[in-house]
Design brief:
Length: about 350
Amino acid sequence: MTIKSILKMLKARHYKKNLLFKKPARTSRNTLYEKECCYIEIWNDNNPQIKGVGECGYLYGLSADNFETYDMALNDCTENIHRYTDRYPQVFSKYPSLIFAVEQALLDLQNQGKRILFNSGFVNNKKPIEINGLIWMDNAANMIKQAVEKINNGFKCIKMKIGAIDFQEEINVIEYINNKYGKNIEIRVDANGAYNFEEAIEKLNVLKTYNIHSIEQPLKKGDCDNYKKLCEMKIIPVALDEELIGVNTYEEKKKLIEHIKPQYLVLKPSLLGGFSACEEWINIARENSCGWWITSALESNIGLNAIAQWTYTLNTNIPQGLGTGSLYINNIQSPLEVNNGKLYYNRHKSWQYNII
């Protein structure tokens, strides 16, 4: 049987689901109470009981997806998957989260629809991935409480959202962590574009007196020249996050990194167009002596599982941003579990994924 004839047998469908946060998730941009996601299933018509599953992990107000035509593209993709399987990144270039969902589903299908996309020590030998503990915006007392809970649960790296409350309160939280735990705990802060250039310089000069590993996206997206200046100043290392979203071609990516010369990149496959797109960013980062780590983008366990399995294959040795699986009341039950600041794939636990 030819590849062309196999592709003609592929079928697909999709459905949407609202994920409900256990607690409101607050950043400098907004406060989230629920998060819409969409799943794509792909199967071979000759063997319909085996299905690959992928998640469209878009975020309204942040993703580069064209939401005006997203549903039309989604319907077109699933109705005509047999036509697009070998060229979906080009056909759906305006919909990075859709590209990633198809990439996941096809990998899953190729591996017999068992939610194992990459056969590795992560899924076979209980080898974990070290992750950061995420501290959401709140008042200082509750942020300290979150941090202490994470550290007591074995996290060695804390990622703290800043920019939405009084800066001195945020410093009080950082100071508490420094005084209590010293350099045993790595602190990353994420401003989600909260500051202008002058504010960023002022804030970074205060932050540099503490044990801060890096700051994500201190300036608003698109302020490339000021990002270049801020990175050249090297007050504390700067990590680009939202700045990467919507930059799609290899040439555009290379131009951005060579211009700004950031210290780190934060790579989110759901928002950047999948694994292949992120691997381009990684290659460019390496060419420019730029560090990087992988982060989930509030996906359910379907998307998180795919990202974690791929991340393990990259042989990273710093904490990754994959600790979002416990955020939701109605998440899909999976073998993923967090223990002692690390993400594990527990083969003794089963998936409970069903299309409703």
